[in-house]
Amino acid sequence: MEFRHLRYFLAVADALHFTKAAKGLPVSQPALSAQIKQLEQEVGVPLFDRVGRSVRLTRAGTIFRDHARRALREMELAQTAIAEEEGLQRGTLTVGVVQTVNAYLVPEIVSRFSTLHPRMLLKFDELSGPDIEDRIKNGVLDLGIGFVPAGSDRIECEPLFEEDFVLIASSRHRLASRRRLPLEVLADEPLVLLPDMYCTRRLLDASFEQVGIRPRVAVEMNSIDGILATVRTSRLATLLPRLSLGLKGNAALRSISLMNPTPRRAVGLLWRKGGYRSGAAKALSDQVRLVVEEHWPV
Known about the structure:
- This protein has 10 helices and 12 strands.
- Helix content is 42%, strand content 26%.
- It is α/β, with parallel strands linked by helices.
- It has 3 domains: 3-86, Arc Repressor Mutant, subunit A (Orthogonal Bundle); 93-160 and 268-295, 3-Layer(aba) Sandwich (D-Maltodextrin-Binding Protein, domain 2); 163-265, D-Maltodextrin-Binding Protein, domain 2, CATH 3.40.190.
- A hairpin with a 2-residue loop joins strand 1 and strand 2.
- Strands 3, 4, 5, 6, 7, 10, 11 and 12 form an 8-stranded mixed sheet that branches. A two-stranded antiparallel ribbon has the order 1-2. Strands 8-9 form a two-stranded parallel sheet.
């Protein structure tokens, strides 16, 4: 059954005459009759009583007419909703984002997008990198802002920027006056880090492994805000992306650059490979690029 069958049926139901109905449709009267017979075969019962040139609805036809009108109305509403979303007049966009980006870049991105498209509903979920990829593959997220390259060939990505990891400590810390440090200097330094379920932590562990040491983990916490608060009020230090201190830094904390090696990660846009990208997703991507270009000029 196709929607044209419903339109043809309703035209005949309204006119109660095949020839009159055909005049308002892009089909001849014999073709219209054939389409209605095809519909009746699919439904399994006659929808019209045909007596000579007279046509009237059967009881089944009356029931079917009401449902057909609702079905066509729902289709019209769906087409209107799609057109409005593509025109960014309304709709919902669901985005997954990693912690540091969510805290320090997303507010500016949201402000710009909402000013331009006030009737669009944005939903941001703060997730780990693997969770973002899983939800993109499953169609739960329209877009992701996470780590690139993606770990799955079912996801396409666009790199946005790279950022270095730094040692973050309070002004009281013994290393607070240093500007740069070799990573190996931290072999015996007590640290507060994210758990190893996070890509950020696994990247750090791999960097430590390159210089043949293991980090001395004193505390594990799954919140960057919690880690920074702990560092601020203790003599523990942490290793996090520089963006964790915000776009303008943090007066209460010091960041010390790392070298030999410098742990580094790339952040980018992610979406399902081959999937449909709505006008809203493209518009949000544009605002993400603009914000990134302002803070990470090429």
